[in-house]
Design goal:
10 helices; DUF559; four-stranded mixed β-sheet; alpha/beta; 2 domains; five-stranded parallel β-sheet; DUF559 domain-containing protein
Amino acid sequence: MRSWAALPTGKVVRLEGAGPLPLAVDSLPREAPAILTCTAREARSPKALASAILDELDATVLGLFPAWLPDAEGIDGPGGAGLAAVRTLALRTAATSAHFGPFLAELAERALRARPGRLPDLRASLSPEIRPSGFPPEVRAAGLARALAAAFSRRGAALLVDVPEGLSPAGQEALVAAGEWLAHRAGLGIWLSGPLPAVDRVETVLVAEAPSQASDRTPITLPPPETGVPGPPPVAGRPHPGSPVERALESALSGCAWAAGRAWNQMLCPNALASPVRVDLLWQDDWCVVELDGPDHRYAEKFADDRARDVRLQIAGYTVLRFTDVQVLSDPQAVVRHIELLLRNRRASRNG
């Protein structure tokens, strides 16, 4: 039985005992690669599937900027000066790393053009000014894998693929063949979880069950069902790159001086004996937590888990506010006013 940290990259394997997907990347040891999850679906051909995954990886990496080029944090605006600065920084970074300089520079330019927050548009149809350039697929695959790993300070990157019951033999073959291409060209780990009766050339690896506290973590966002390709995991300190709701709230908060001190996607440990939990938005100095609930939070099991999390945080001294995605997207200013009122009251009590 292998640990998650010991699973191979640069290879396609089928996992046995992996447990339910998706899996929170921060529930894994630091030695494990950065992981994206996706669900396998029927594809016309291995080439078409690999191409679709590359496009989604491209959109994901653009959304993670500047996590994979940290010194670019202060470079604002897609104007000439900004583009020249970010290109120079990318080339300098590549000179002392495994990145391919021309590709990283082009990727950084496109990421700066895409700022701020155009990931939903990217997933639908990459706009002309940020569409992938003419680099060969092999160069794109390797460069995107390196950038993804760098964004999370991990040793490499992997796709954790849920293979559903009923995938046709042709679909299984296309999945494995596309995975082999990505593994060999990009060094990605392609980890398949589910039945593959039609393909007998894939090694099966028994893997240790994910840590029990993973159920307390925010899951990796999956893409719309028609794509079947990966969504990005959260990045500590930033709105989730795949969440228009988090980005909308951050946009509404960004001009508010009172909102200083906020931190997105943080891990909290309510007490020394408790498993850590991920919270969407945190004001640590004010002991305030804001959670954003999508439609899945209406289901009984998820609703009960949310209430249990809130109680644990409240006992530890945190105040928890919850808003639905619909509230944030339809009336973000109302949400902001509620948060402001809570923070001002907490600060008045603390200083009073």
